[in-house]
Amino acid sequence: xxHTCIPAIIKAxxxxxxxxxxxxxxxxxxxxxxxxxxxxxxxxxxxEPLTTLSQVNPQRADDHPSPALSIADALSSAPESDGAYFLxxxxxxxxxxx
Length: 98
Description:
Elements lengths: L5 H7 L6 H21 L31 H5 L23
């Protein structure tokens, strides 16, 4: 159905797929979009939208403002910090091209 869009989706998603994987991805996307289209056939006139997936209303805690953590307290559990910020090792999924 949307086979012409697949290369653009793969490129935008930065996926590194083999031709077989791209074909499987295409089929999976087609299957999902088919079922989404089928949902348009369902008459939902007069049906209120759900706010939860069950009839049980979840218990919610009261939301009251409280003092914020100090920087020292917030950073006390950090594996690494510079005293003001958490520090993380650089991560990259980008493949370098020659």
